Amino acid sequence: xxxxxxxxxxxxxxxxxxxxxxxxxxxxxxxxxxxxxxxxxxxxxxxxxxxxxxxxxxxxxxxxxxxxxxxxxxxxxxxxxxxxxxxxxxxxxxxxxxxxxxxxxxxxxxxxxxxxxxxxxxxxxxxxxxxxxxxxxxxxxxxxxxxxxxxxxxxxxxxxxxxxxxxxxxxxxxxxxxxxxxxxxxxxxxxxxxxxxxxxxxxxxxxxxxxxxxxxxxxxxxxxxxxxxxxxxxxxxxxxxxxxx
Length: 245
Prior knowledge:
Elements: E1 5-10, H1 13-22, E2 26-29, H2 42-51, E3 56-59, H3 71-86, E4 91-94, H4 105-115, E5 120-122, H5 132-142, E6 146-149, H6 160-170, E7 175-178, H7 184-190, E8 198-200, E9 204-208, E10 229-233, H8 235-244
Parallel strand pairs: 1-2, 1-8, 2-3, 3-4, 4-5, 5-6, 6-7
Antiparallel strand pairs: 9-10
GO molecular function, one term: copper ion binding
Keywords: Cytoplasm
Organism: Belliella baltica (strain DSM 15883 / CIP 108006 / LMG 21964 / BA134)
């Protein structure tokens, strides 16, 4: 049986290097974990391409929040694809919706055209669209190679039913890649479909900062105190995934 490909999203250089050392199949390079991922720096991509041969797909997202973008934001996304492609990006990850929760095909086609044949993933904007089965067909028509989805729910575990339906409907026309709180046990449940080709798992963890000095009077994050923590990868969780792929 063909091994299921493992893609790992990485938000730090440390996490990317660890994932590469562990032998993951592909990286999704992002910035700003707190916003769910936005476009990373050119410097980060350029550095990592010098250090590894692992394919790197790059998130193209100009800001956090919703996925309804202005013409100006679409132009920024197009230019980001152009620039990051010149620095060796192997593929791109993005998604654009309209005000009614439908796929914005015109914007997506502009961005896919700019990718000049490099594979594009429609990310979890898919999970907030109004009709996932209609969206599947529109995404295929646009020319995307895969969809990243948690099955319209907060996690893959909760969205297994819809993911199973999408895998069946997609056939061999597009890759449906489960991701979003993915657990090794979810992989085991989806394997019997015989259509599971790729999965997306963050395997994230935090390590303590190496800084000796810390401030007790300041928290730079409104949601969680990470001022003395560094986002990295949990190699134990990576090992657990390798056992089921």
